[in-house]
């Protein structure tokens, strides 16, 4: 996302960890970051979790046509099984849209005047 890329570009290249906390700038553990994020969502009275953001990102990628390999890389999973879950749902939606478009094309070809040819 352009906004994220812009913010990340401001981080010094020699700094490997940019999500830190406390006076000594300790890196977050996955659990503590998730808890902190949920606390922030609760304080703002909005639903949310880091897991939910990951799922939303994977869904957006699948809907944009990403492959299971691309989604696996985004989620940092070892296999494509989870990525395929997202692409299967996106493919099902695309196939449904494609099928309905074919029905729409069929109805456009039908005679809408109600008159029968007697030739």
Structure notes:
This protein is elongated. Strands 1-2 form a two-stranded antiparallel sheet. A hairpin with a 4-residue loop joins strand 1 and strand 2. The longest helix is centred in the last third of the chain and has 29 residues. By secondary structure, the chain is mainly alpha-helical. It contains five helices and two strands, in the order H-E-E-H-H-H-H.
Topology:
Layout: H1 2-9, E1 20-21, E2 26-27, H2 30-43, H3 50-63, H4 68-75, H5 81-109
Helix pairs in contact: 3-4, 3-5, 4-5
Short description, anyone?
The chain has 119 residues and is mainly α. It has helices spanning 2-9, 30-43, 50-63, 68-75, 81-109; strands at 20-21, 26-27. A two-stranded antiparallel sheet has the order 1-2.
Please describe the structure with a list of short key phrases separated by commas or semicolons.
mainly alpha, about 120 residues, about 60% helix, two-stranded antiparallel ribbon, 5 helices, 2 strands
Q: How would you state the average pLDDT, rounded?
A: 82
- Any idea what the shape is? elongated
Uncertain residue ranges: none
List the quaternary state of the chains. single chain
Largest sheet, strands/sense/barrel? 2 strands, antiparallel
How do the helices and strands follow one another from N- to C-terminus? HEEHHHH
Helix content estimate: 55-70%
What is the alpha-carbon Rg in Å?
A: 24 Å
Q: What's the total number of strands?
A: 2
Total helical segments? 5
The secondary-structure class comes to mainly alpha
Distance between the termini: 62 Å
The strand line-up of the biggest sheet is 1-2
**How large a portion of the residues is in β-strands, by DSSP E?**
under 5%
